[in-house]
Amino acid sequence: MSFPANRLHRALCMLPLLMIGAWMAAHWHTMYAGAMRLTSADPKWLLTGLLFACLCWAAAACVRQGAVLERLPSGLLYATQFAAGAANHVLPGGLGAHAVTLRFLNRRGIPLDRGTASIALYSLTKSIATTVVTTAFLALRPHTVPYDRLLPDNPGTALAIGGAAVGVAAVVAALLLTFVHPLRRLVTDFLRTARTDVRRLHTRPARILALWGGALAFPLLQGSVVAAVGTSLHLPLPWADIILAYLAANALGALVPSPGGLGSVDAALVLTLTAFGAPAALAAATVIGYRVLTVWLPLLPGALTLTALVRKKVL
Fold first, then answer.
1. Mean pLDDT throughout 249-274?
2. In this structure, is residue 40 part of a structural domain?
3. CA 131 to CA 137: how far, in whole Å?
4. pTM
5. Is 3 inside any structural domain?
């Protein structure tokens, strides 16, 4: 009985490397073009951008810790978030990172329902924090945002379509919860568990600081990676405008779930940087550099870390 289990374990260890290898092969030309474009960039600012990228994983680890009551080992938690970044670029909507984190929490003795509740809290907190940061930037720099170039020609139609989609989703969810009793019981139990954990977490100042501090820092650090790369390429935009352009692009790209935001966020970021006044070629090079630091450069180390964590049965 142990022989098939060992073979399955070895296959799971190799799966991250195979999936990442396939992704790299499919995007090889883009990776090469981006690397060539960055040869003329200021290396000091690129290293600064890499530092901000490393701090992004630390911020994500803080939010993960803040979303659970148990104390998690900080080193393994950071390594898990670094490895989750590699998995996140294979599955859309952050599912890869959530799956890795859920497995890590389960191996640390946290039950599935509470682990799932922590992931929901993580996602909700990050969304709220990103909205707060974006609103603050819009309030501080109201006259620098080129609304005429970012908003559609007929915003009323876009809002109507979005509202209709939200309404249809709400009706479908209500029907499912009304007529599918096992699903309603599952959702009810999940909400009860999540509400209990959230109440207990917010009685602990250390968890509040980790949860909300990490969530507020994360979009600022991600935007700072873009700003550092833009500065290395002499992008003619202030640092704050580049971060605001990233925040706007992140909101637009979230409407189209793709692995790690690849594609949708990239196109939106080029659009927003150009709308803020950056030359199109420099905007595209900045986005490529941002992806080099946050995706392509850590991709293989992240896959190796993921494989090592699976082999050591941390995951």
1. 70
2. yes
3. 10
4. 0.79
5. no
